[in-house]
Q: What sequence folds into this?
């Protein structure tokens, strides 16, 4: 006990533990536990990155091969034949087909055909012949697909 007017003692007294009260703030991490936590965080981040890369390549594989085309002009040769000038743009190693449709003046479909493009070029200009059931007045590109 301190005398009146004397200064209180600073620091721990003999017999008391130095530092924080035991059990009050949880237990302290050991070096192994801290290393395990860091490894779990690094492993989780690398796992997310790997999933992202696999997802990107999967998306690119499914949507990466694009084939596009445009009907430059068409010519009605006869009542049963139309010639269309088709310009196709694609990856050089891509293979695919484009679908053309011809319509009569009434709007009825009179012909439809798929034309394959397997050449190892990235731009193809080709005149294709479309057979029709009756006289066509228009030619329309419905779309192109890889495969």
A:
């Amino acid at each position: 006990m301190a005398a009146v007017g004397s200064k209180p003692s600073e620091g721990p007294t003999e017999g008391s533990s130095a530092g924080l009260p035991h059990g009050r703030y949880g237990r302290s991490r050991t070096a192994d536990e801290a290393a395990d936590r860091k490894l779990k965080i690094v492993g989780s981040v690398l796992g997310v990155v790997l999933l992202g890369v696999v997802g990107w390549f999967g998306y690119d594989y499914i949507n990466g091969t694009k084939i596009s085309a445009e009907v430059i002009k068409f010519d009605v040769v006869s009542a049963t034949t139309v010639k269309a000038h088709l310009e196709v743009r694609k990856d050089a190693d891509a293979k695919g087909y484009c679908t053309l449709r011809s319509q009569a003046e009434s709007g009825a479909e009179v012909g439809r055909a798929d034309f394959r493009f397997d050449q190892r070029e990235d731009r193809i200009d080709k005149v294709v012949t479309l057979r029709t059931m009756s006289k066509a007045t228009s030619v329309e590109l419905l779309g192109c697909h890889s495969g």
